[in-house]
Amino acid sequence: MPKKTPEERQQSIEEFLIKRFDENFERIKFESGHGLAPEIKEAAKRQVLFYWLRLKEVAESITDTEVRLNLAGQLTPKKRKFNIEGIVDIVREKGRTVMYDLKTHDPEYIKKNESEYERQLNVYAHIWLKLRQQELDETAVIATRFPDSLNAAWNRRKQDPNRFEEELQNWNPIIEFRFNTKHVEDVVREFGQVVDAIEDGAYSPPPVKRLKIVEVGKQTFATRVCRNCDVRFSCGPYRDYIKTSRSRDLPRFREIFEDAGSQEDRDLRMDAGLVAIGTEEVG
């Protein structure tokens, strides 16, 4: 059997990634009963592909994936117990150990807010060094959000493959951070203050005016921040924002909420529910 050329091997990997993405998407949609608007699904798929194309050396060298770090038994200023938990990837290569934290933000935003990410990585480094007692040489964030210019070049890659390759190389999603665990106690105390505020209900969402402010990368606060909030659809200001906004970044909410899958999917979920009810009655 003839060996595949590098281009053929690359094509096979891309096809494999797309296939597994679609399989995982269908599984998650079936289990949760929720889908995604087509453009959001496509953006997520491209995020996976671009990550591989740009950082395949990192992806191939990762030795520990989705390492769960936990700083348990912490106390807030009001004596409430809480834990700090994070998930990172570890690369051990040539006598060096590097910790990577994946973020869905774009590199420009992370660079503008370095202290925020650096403090979080310091907590993870503290857990790794002090609690796990393992060596660590470097920490970095991988910003998986890709620039619009790369997306546009991908759409025209067949007509202009060189432009896509150029845009891909110009995209640098890795932002390295120095780590210093001396200030971990201050960060943990701030986490505790946030926990107390949440438990006391002493917080409120920003007004619609704040959501419309354009920030780094010509994106609004709502696009950059609110879309990462799990309770945004229950937030009054956010609901008011989406009623008036014309942003192309907003998903088609009706399409998302009404997408219950195919008739076959709905029948399977109904059958599974009936089986579960029958099992409970027998038990």
Describe the protein's architecture and organization.
The structure is a single chain. The protein has 283 residues and is an alpha+beta fold. It folds into two domains: 38-203, no CATH class; 204-251, no CATH class. Helix content is 54%, strand content 16%. The protein contains twelve helices and five strands. A five-stranded mixed sheet has the order 1-2-3-4-5. Strand 2 (81-93) and strand 3 form a beta hairpin. Helix 5 runs antiparallel to helix 6.
Main-sheet strand order equals 1-2-3-4-5
**Number of H/I helices:** 12
Structural class: alpha+beta
**Average pLDDT taken over every residue:** 84
- Principal-axes geometry comes out as globular
Strand content: 15-25%
Low-confidence region ranges: none
Order of helices and strands: HHEEEHHEHHEHHHHHH
Let me know the largest β-sheet: 5 strands, mixed
Radius of gyration: 22 Å
Distance between the termini: 57 Å
Number of strands: 5
Provide a concise account of the structure shown.
This protein is 54% helix and 16% strand. The protein has helices at 6-32, 38-61, 107-112, 114-131, 148-155, 161-170, 184-199, 208-211, 221-224, 236-244, 253-258, 263-282; strands at residues 62-75, 81-93, 96-103, 138-143, 174-177. The chain has a 5-stranded mixed β-sheet.
Q: What topology emerges from the helices and strands here?
A:
Layout: H1 6-32, H2 38-61, E1 62-75, E2 81-93, E3 96-103, H3 107-112, H4 114-131, E4 138-143, H5 148-155, H6 161-170, E5 174-177, H7 184-199, H8 208-211, H9 221-224, H10 236-244, H11 253-258, H12 263-282
Parallel strand pairs: 3-4
Antiparallel strand pairs: 1-2, 2-3, 4-5
Helix pairs in contact: 5-6
